[in-house]
Design a protein that fits this description.
Shape: globular
Strand order of the largest sheet: 1-3-2
Helix content: 25-40%
Largest sheet: 3 strands, antiparallel
Strand content: 25-35%
Low-confidence stretches: 1-13
Mean pLDDT: 82
Number of domains: 1
Number of helices: 4
Structural class: alpha+beta
């Protein structure tokens, strides 16, 4: 049994979006309780797809290509992204002792003008 989280992050095709230029990329994050992620995967992916579509529509763009999902390490993300993700975690789960059960999931998809 390999470490699924580690292999997903180490996969060069799933290395993440380019944070220096997000003009053509929609990105979404979600903290998922470890057990819920295993049991409710289709619902989580549907939620990501809806969120990415809404973001693209707000930007006057449409999604192209396939949605990519991975499990980034928080410390590898840019500092400003980390801050907002930690703030989201705090709003989602105020019981600090449960934070160890949360897994960060990231989805992104390329966009083009509508």
């Amino acid at each position: 049994m390999g470490n699924e989280r580690g292999s997903a992050v180490a996969d060069p095709t799933a290395s993440g979006p380019d944070y220096n230029d997000l003009s053509d990329t929609a990105v979404a994050y979600r903290w998922v309780p470890r057990d819920e992620g295993r049991e409710n995967r289709p619902a989580i992916l549907a939620e990501f797809a809806t969120g990415l579509e809404e973001y693209a529509a707000e930007q006057g763009a449409r999604l192209v290509g396939a949605m990519t999902v991975d499990f980034p390490r928080l410390r590898d993300l840019p500092k400003d992204v980390r801050r907002s993700i930690l703030r989201t975690m705090w709003l989602q789960e105020r019981r600090w002792w449960r934070w160890g059960d949360l897994v960060l999931v990231r989805a992104w998809q390329h966009t083009e003008p509508a």
